[in-house]
Amino acid sequence: MANARALLVHPEEGSDRIETALGAAGFEVTRTDTAASAVAKATTGEYDCVVSEYALAGDDGVALATAIEESDAGVPVVMFTATDEEGVPEAAFENGVDRFLQKNGSASIDRLVSDVSTVCSGVSASETRQDVSDHEPTASEVTRAVEDAPIGISISDPDLPDYPLVYVNDAWEEHTGYPVEEALGRNPRFLQGPGTDPETVDEIAEAIGNEEEVTVEIRNYRRDGTPFWNELTVAPVYDDDGDLAHYVGFQNDISDRKEAERLAEERAEKLATERRSLDRVLGRVNGLLSDISRILVENRDSGVISERVCEVIAGEPGYAGGWIGEVSSATGRLEIRAASGVSVEPGASYDVAETPAEVQEAIETEELHSGSIEHVADGPLEPKSAGGRRLLVVPLTYGDRQYGLLGIYGNGADVLARRERRVCESVGKMIANGLHSIETTEILTTDRVVELVVGIRDETAALSRIADAVGGEVVHLGTTRLEDDECELYFRADGEDPDLDELASLPLVESMRTVSETNDGVSFAVTVTDSPPLTQLAAHGGVVTEATATADEATLTIEAPPEHDVRSILDVFRDEYEGVELRSRVERESRDRTVAEFAAAVDERLTDRQRAALKTAELNGYFEWPRPVDGSEIAERMGITRQTFHQHLRAAERKLVEAYVDPRSDG
């Protein structure tokens, strides 16, 4: 009944089904579980009906009905109860209950909805009804209605041994597949089978023995052996003398509903299982992330970090252990740097072709790969030989720089599943980021360096194309990284009148601006859409200390730690350009690394705009006295307002001073 409000007075247990049925019928349902609360709500005039259980906390439904009647609230009360206590129905009707229903399966729920709709519509039992005496159906019409009813109807005779069927209608035959001649004369238990619940059978037998009505949901079987769910109501029928004459059975095929309920239960169980699995994953990876973060913060030795990471993995519940290894550029073999928890020894070396497929795939694709013990044989690093059930291989990658592989062995079937693999991939990036930070620090602080002079004779190189557009040699002064792989390159071009007009027409140039002009030349900044390879060197352990270019070639001076692989640095350029050659390789004492380290520390604290403002101001002589330019001129060259320029410059100056006064400050 649309827009009607029902107050359900019922314990929480068992109330969901009632609320759902009333809600489906259009009622707005409010539930409470105590009589006191119900009286307070019912007397507000907001409800059209009260539906109450008899047994309530601290009281009963009869007392509730009495209180509502005495309040003159005029709200009808329907009692829907499981109690079979003697005298309750009589007491209910004597104390204001309009309808009294016994709980007995879904049929009683349907009857409840019908009765609640009736009392809410204002139609009472005493209301004048139409005279239908001339419209009573004939015996043949009743028979036809029973025979054509959409639900199965059967009649059993209790005067015959074993209560056999003496009548079934067409729907009964259709539901069961048994023709009438095979059904009559047999007890309906022949519909039972291996999946029929014995307790349900006993419940039916007990009700029949007590001459009581009963409604159950029972698993029966059709003539062809297929099972179906039968919502069965069996009720006694008495003759005019009050003697038991027959038992009538009403059969409704609810297989579709039961299947929907089964699927809903499976879905709920699946969600619960996934939630439990996710909780285990979160517990595992949260501990892993926390421990590895602490290791990266507390240690500055890459070897120690590798050892500690493997120890943490081995100690985490669900993991058997792990290893960290790297493919040697000299031998092409996988060399294990650290291992813990599994039968893999640090220092061991393996032919890559003999390692598990997931190791080879991770090396080839630089992506995460996993496999399980069920799909592999014995062999180096295989889960079976290493002591685990599943192997996950995680590349340790920072930008284009490869720091090796992390192998993790799970010791459970549900370990290292899809969600966990994604988190482990993040762990790999975290480790690579930490190793890269250590490597960069070593470059800046090492006492000895390898100085490489690299020549690039390729006219398509970015530096040579810029030099060609300017019409002379250019000196690279520095680079500022921007968003979306863009960067701003700073150059100086010597001479009386370098031509910068051609720069803007280059496809690689997004914008160009003059930074400073003197009699000796001009300094300018070029924003390019794709960062040139020299900006990638930091990810490979190299630092550009000097770079010059003409239209024909570019020459770069690069510093790297002595132990670093020179070939990986050269490959950065060879992947992009022709004519790349190593002109010299000299190991020598480092230059003034204190200044370099200080500059790198400051550079990390500055934003892109602060860095650009500081560099542009310095290149234009802003810090000289007397100043050859003022802030307005520099702001105009940067394409920003004077106020914005000074904001960026002051922020950069403050961070520069803080780094000098308190080097340990975060800036």
Word description of this protein:
With 667 residues, the chain is α+β, with helices and mostly antiparallel strands. It has 5 domains: 5-121, Response regulator (Rossmann fold); 145-257, PAS domain (Beta-Lactamase, 2-Layer Sandwich); 299-444, Beta-Lactamase (2-Layer Sandwich); 448-589, no CATH class; 595-661, Arc Repressor Mutant, subunit A. The chain has 20 helices and 26 strands. The strands form 5 sheets. Strands 22-23-21-20-24-25-19-26 form an 8-stranded antiparallel β-sheet, sandwiched between helices. It has a 6-stranded antiparallel β-sheet with strand order 15-14-13-18-17-16, sandwiched between helices. Helix 1 (15-24) links the parallel strand 1 and strand 2. Helix 17 crosses helix 20 (642-661). The longest helix has 44 residues, at 255-298. It is elongated, with a radius of gyration of 43 Å. The protein starts with a strand and ends in a 6-residue tail after the last helix. Residues 123-127 have low confidence and may be disordered.
Structural topology:
Elements: E1 5-9, H1 15-24, E2 28-32, H2 35-42, E3 49-52, E4 55-56, E5 59-60, H3 61-70, E6 77-81, H4 88-94, E7 99-102, H5 106-121, H6 139-147, E8 152-156, E9 165-168, H7 170-176, H8 180-183, H9 198-209, E10 214-221, E11 227-238, E12 244-253, H10 255-298, H11 302-315, E13 319-327, E14 334-340, E15 349-350, H12 357-365, E16 369-372, H13 383-386, E17 390-398, E18 401-410, H14 418-445, E19 448-456, H15 462-470, E20 474-481, E21 487-494, E22 509-518, E23 521-528, E24 543-549, E25 554-560, H16 566-574, E26 580-589, H17 593-605, H18 608-619, H19 631-638, H20 642-661
Parallel strand pairs: 1-2, 1-3, 3-6, 6-7
Antiparallel strand pairs: 4-5, 8-9, 8-12, 10-11, 11-12, 13-14, 13-18, 14-15, 16-17, 17-18, 19-25, 19-26, 20-21, 20-24, 21-23, 22-23, 24-25
Helix pairs in contact: 2-3, 10-11, 10-14, 17-20, 18-19, 18-20, 19-20
Protein name: PAS domain-containing protein
GO molecular function: kinase activity
Domain PAC: 214-266
